[in-house]
Specification:
The longest helix has about 35 residues. The two termini are about 65 Å apart. The chain is mainly alpha-helical. The protein contains 5 helices and no strands.
Amino acid sequence: MFENLNVWEVGALLLLALLIFGDRLPAVIGDGLRMVRNLRTMARNATTDLSKELGTDIQLEDLHPKAFIRKHLLSEEDEQAIRKPLQGVYDDLRADVTNVHKDLKEVATAVDPRTPGSSSAGGSIAPAPRAGNYDEVT
């Protein structure tokens, strides 16, 4: 947590805390630690209650919806059966996007007048004349 702070910065923070809280600093630190302990106990109790209700062993990391479904509702075969058609669609889409990107690059280099040897079917395209300022155009 404090790995990117040097000794002087940590000392300055402690001095600032001492100036703000004064002689109440030990009580404030104790209250903060008690709150953290209570939060951990509440999280542990919630996961224990959820484990009892579902009848399986649940860890705090398992509460993410993807991890929960993967671990408790799907077998590995079911997961592979779901992934297989989606993987094929993903691969096809990725190949199509790559081809479109390649085609767009080819068109851009063919049309770009700054690249040497670029020309279109009807010869070279002259760049459009730039309009001057508003007064010159009107």
